[in-house]
Amino acid sequence: MRGGPGDAERRQRWGRLFEELDSNKDGRVDIRELRQGLARLGGGDPDRGAQQGIPPEGDTDPDGGLDLEEFILYLQEREQRLLLLFHSLDRNQDGQIDVSEIQQSFRALGISISLEQAEKILHSMDRDGTMTIDWQEWRDHFLLHSLENVEDVLYFWKHSTVLDIGECLTVPDEFSEQEKLTGMWWKQLVAGAVAGAVSRTGTAPLDRLKVFMQVHASKTNRLNILGGLRSMIQEGGVRSLWRGNGINVLKIAPESAIKFMAYEQIKRAIRGQQETLHVQERFVAGSLAGATAQTIIYPMEVLKTRLTLRRTGQYKGLLDCAWQILEREGPRAFYRGYLPNVLGIIPYAGIDLAVYETLKNQWLQQYSHDSADPGILVLLACGTISSTCGQIASYPLALVRTRMQAQASMEGAPQLSMLGLLRHILSQEGVRGLYRGIAPNFMKVIPAVSISYVVYENMKQALGVTSRLTTIPGAWLPLSSGRQAGNLKLGSH
């Protein structure tokens, strides 16, 4: 590996770069000059780069520009980070990054790329035609070029925060260290929670119909969607279609917060000395975090089911419902159906993650030549398909859970265990009996996804969530040590 030049030579090189960018010779580099300089130097998309702005960590006085000393200090720190990243990718420590090391780095992040794509990535940085990248090629490339990178892939392809279809069993999102330090993580979680609240309220009638059919539909009564809606409206009026929605919205915040905190702790325990988590490890961490959150907030799930199925005048409100359950059935009633609920996390989260990763990799393989951004329609379609597949796999367990939660409040209903209830349903109704209510569940997916996305985007704007980290264009490097393939381009330059 060719070592970097001495400090004096580096300062001269950075000084020449500063002079070239400082077109009006006022001793400062601002966003306009960055845009013009990048276009002149061939640094990728200048508009995209300029939108990322001046780095606050480099600008010691908040005037929107960098003087020479600030510029040199920033590039000095940037080179140090680039050097660390170079060493982490150079797995055999021979001073060169080759095609196989690029593929390994992507694979560690759960992204499969072909040999041809890896060669394109390498070719975009290889100036001497050796089909390897040394330190100088790596440094010069990422100090001057604004490229789509793996962090872009991870940002664009986040989906569990954005999409709320009434189930909280997905693997949590990844947040970079920069997002955590700047507070963007909690703003995204708040935006997701508000989006989920609006989405669940908008689709509450279909959700109540699903629960109603899960518990009451059978071979004998042939309860269908129209019959269920008619029955609920006749019993309690149109307002009754929103029964149980209050606590369904109320449980979003504690569940999201607990799951996020548990996920971070479990990830840290699993990762140990590793730099990254593989997809399988993310699944394990996400499943354990989901089980932790569900264990803590599960009494709210039982209350939600009881309030959703309540008759007019049965309960005065949430507290009265909780008190009646405690008084008549004891504290154990608040954990009825807990086992099938926790078991349902594994097929739901596993299949949701597996299908999403498969669809993501298919898109990246075929269409990511110029950008890692799939566009909103592709993103929503992939999220909807993966969540729907997860629901289909876990639905029988969800139905058993709901019936176990409700059976104590139903007159004459047998008090069965999970296995006893499964045997009862299969003997009386067959396999179709395990999918009662799945039609309204599917019907709510598209409106739920659409509403949650629109609200999420508006909330992000209201909270000032930036869609990129704020850095000098072309010199962007993730602060997170957990995603070390952060600056490799997908596709040709």
TrEMBL record:
Cross-referenced InterPro entries: EF-hand-dom_pair, EF_Hand_1_Ca_BS, EF_hand_dom, MCP, MCP_dom_sf, MCP_transmembrane
Keywords on record: Calcium, Membrane, Metal-binding, Repeat, Transmembrane, Transmembrane helix, Transport
CDD domains from the UniProt entry: EFh
UniProt KW Hydrolase keyword: no
UniProt xrefs under SUPFAM superfamilies: EF-hand, Mitochondrial carrier
Residue windows of the Solcar repeats: 183-269, 277-362, 374-462
Domain annotation EF-hand: ranges: 9-44, 77-112, 113-148
A Pfam short name: EF-hand_7
Cellular compartments annotated: Mitochondrion inner membrane
Region Disordered: start-end pairs: 37-64
Cited PROSITE patterns: EF_HAND_1, EF_HAND_2, SOLCAR
Reaction catalysed by this enzyme: 3'-AMP(out) + phosphate(in) = 3'-AMP(in) + phosphate(out); dADP(out) + phosphate(in) + H(+)(out) = dADP(in) + phosphate(out) + H(+)(in); dAMP(out) + phosphate(in) = dAMP(in) + phosphate(out); 3'-AMP(in) + ADP(out) + H(+)(out) = 3'-AMP(out) + ADP(in) + H(+)(in)
Membrane topology: Multi-pass membrane protein
The family this protein is said to belong to: Belongs to the mitochondrial carrier (TC 2.A.29) family.
Protein name in UniProt: Mitochondrial adenyl nucleotide antiporter SLC25A23 isoform X2
